[in-house]
Structures are given as C-alpha cells and as structure tokens.
C-alpha cells in the first residue's frame, strides 16, 4: 500500500459508524473487492474513489454504508456461516450493499436467492422507471435545465392520465372516465332488451328492422355510444402522445384492451358504409353484432381506476406458473376419470348402459363439473362402480384445486398490499398538492 500513514501496521475501516481494524497484509488479499482496492491506492484522489472520506492521521477510511449489512457480509467472507439477508432490511437494499462491496447474488444462500429473484421480479413488474423523482435526475443532466419545463409538463400530463390518485385533476379525469364506462355498459346491455328493440323499430320498415342492431348512431343509444367512443378514443390518443416509450405503450395489456374495445365500433361503421343498402348487410349483420358485443371489454377499463381489478391482473401475471400447474392437474384428472367413467357406465354392459356416457369427450363434461363441485345434474352415473368413482372424482378435485390455489392466494395478498402502498404514496402527493 503506497498511500497512508507511514509505519502504520493496520488500517481502520469505518462503515456507518462501526469500526474494523485490518492489517495491511490482510488488506491486500481481502475477499471484498472494494476493500482490497485500497491496497493499490497511490494518492488521496485514488482513495476517495474507493471510499467516502479518509483521515490520514488515524489512517481511517470512512464508508457511508449500512453497518449491519456490512457486518453480515464480513462474517461471510471470514468463513463464519452462509450469507443471508439481514433482518428487518429490504432484500434490494441488502443486494445493493453486496454489489457495492464486490459480491454477487450467487453468494447468497439458495433460499435468499429465491427471495431476491421474486423481489426483483415484483419490482420490475410493478414499479416503473418513471416513478416520482426521475424528473429531478433528468434536470441534472447536461442540457436538462432547458428542457425541464417541457419534460415537467409531459410528466404531469402522463401521470394525470396514468395514475388516477396522483393529483386532483387525475381523480376528476378518472371519475369522468368511469362515468362514461358505466353509461356505455348500461346502453349496451339495454339495447339487447326486446322491449327496447321493439320500441325503436315501431316506425321502421322491414329492411330498417333487419339492420337496426348493426347500424350505430341512428338512435339515441347510438348517439350516446358515439359520444362514449369519442371520449375513449381521445383519451387513448392523448395517453399515447404523452407516453415516454411508444413501443412499450402499445405492448401494455390495458392499452391492448383499450384498442380491442374501441376498434370494433369503427370497423362496424366502416362495414355499414361499404355495404350500404344492399343485401350484403344482412350477411354482415352477424359479424357486426359480434363486433358490437366485443365492446364489453370497456368494463375492463375500470382496472385503471380500481385497485381490486389491478390486483387480480397482477396476481394472474405473477402466478402464471401456478395457473398452468392447475390446468395440468385438471387435464390429467379429467383424462383418467372420463375414461374410467365411460368404461363403467357404458362400456361394460351395453344393454343397461348410461346414454350420457357414450364417449370419453362426453364424460369429460361430467368430470369437470364434479371436480369443481358444481354438479348441474344434467348427467350422472347410475351404476354402483360409477357412483363410487364419482365420489373419488369429487374428493380428488377438491384436493387438486386446493394445492395451487394456496400459492395464488398468498400472491394475491402480496399484490394487494403493494398496490395499496403505491396508492397511498400517490395519495400523500395529492394531499400535499391540495394543501399547496
């Protein structure tokens, strides 16, 4: 070590107030890469690139880091046990300390590696890079001060449309959007009532009646529907304009749902314009009614404004492995029990066979309603072996469905608490803005 107080046989590391004394020989080959770099420092400038401060008189190096985390890391590198997370410390914060001192995630115990992977996955899925505080970092960059007003305006607009609890204007905008969704759903449901259709078709000719359900905009319900579509379209366009990453915006599930909810209306309008008054409209009527029913996706837009629907979507995204496992369990059990039930109810005695179990695909329906304990009663076994098999099928369904649902439940609770935490954080920002 060429820099430091001459004649000193040891150096002192001060990490967050905790002092550790190390010999110069040990410092050279110390397992922590940042600490061993002190041995090669030739000037005070080199030292300050490694640590936060240095006291030449006492030969003491200061590190403004977490002292408890460094204690766990130091015990590990000295060979006293395995590396695990410090109690009452965030996994990401501890991992940040590990990276700072020169360790990697592979040094952690396997159980802690899984906790770290889950935590990093949750953070990447839920917390985006454009959280509050990013704007300040942009202003600190070269040339950021000039562009700060425009960035601030875009950031405010983006948060107004993306985060319903981020400001008072965002809450008002979210409330208006929810009203439009509810109105559009009520109109869509009411338009399928027979009395509604009959009242609207009283003064129409037979040809008009055949295309009524497909042509939007000619009745009061069509006018309301057009206004709602106009609002949704304008909202989607503005959100696309103020988004930071246009490609990422298009890939988001909620934005895809918005597109699926808006597009059928314009397709039905174009098909009506092109088919006109000829007979092709009757052939296109089924397609137009299908497109009209696709607007039921509007109700999923409520996920932007209600934490319960957001929790459901985030849980399904994180638990796709458990969902696949659940489907595999059901499919395997359905294949076994449907084959056995078809054999016991229809294959052994053709004279007294059960006509409901004529094939394995037909028996699959009975298996699925039995495993889920629904039991519509439309088909059931009549033989004693078939009834015994039915009892086994019901009990097996309860057990197989309960196993993966436990993991899904815990993930749902975790997602709910995380979303509540984020909503509370933005609510505090809203309170500050309202008071100011």
Describe this structure in words.
The chain is mostly helical and 436 residues long. The chain folds into three domains: 10-129, 2-Layer Sandwich (Potassium Channel Kv1.1, Chain A); 163-204 and 215-305, Four Helix Bundle (Hemerythrin (Met), subunit A) (Up-down Bundle), CATH 1.20.120; 310-420, Orthogonal Bundle (Helix Hairpins), CATH 1.10.287. The protein has helices at 24-28, 33-36, 44-50, 67-77, 91-101, 110-126, 134-139, 144-162, 168-190, 194-200, 206-212, 220-242, 246-251, 253-275, 280-293, 307-318, 320-347, 360-371, 384-435, and strands at residues 10-15, 18-23, 53-55, 60-63. Strands 2-1-4-3 form a four-stranded mixed sheet. Strand 3 (53-55) and strand 4 form a beta hairpin. Helix 8 (144-162) runs parallel beside helix 9. The longest helix has 52 residues, at 384-435. The model is unreliable at 124-146, 205-217, 277-282 and 431-436 (pLDDT under 50). Keywords: Cell membrane, Cytoplasm, Ion channel, Ion transport, Membrane, Potassium, Potassium channel, Potassium transport, Transmembrane, Transmembrane helix, Transport, Voltage-gated channel. It is a multi-pass membrane protein. The chain crosses the membrane at residues 168-193, 222-242, 254-276, 296-316, 323-344, 356-376, 388-412. This is Voltage-gated potassium channel regulatory subunit KCNG3.
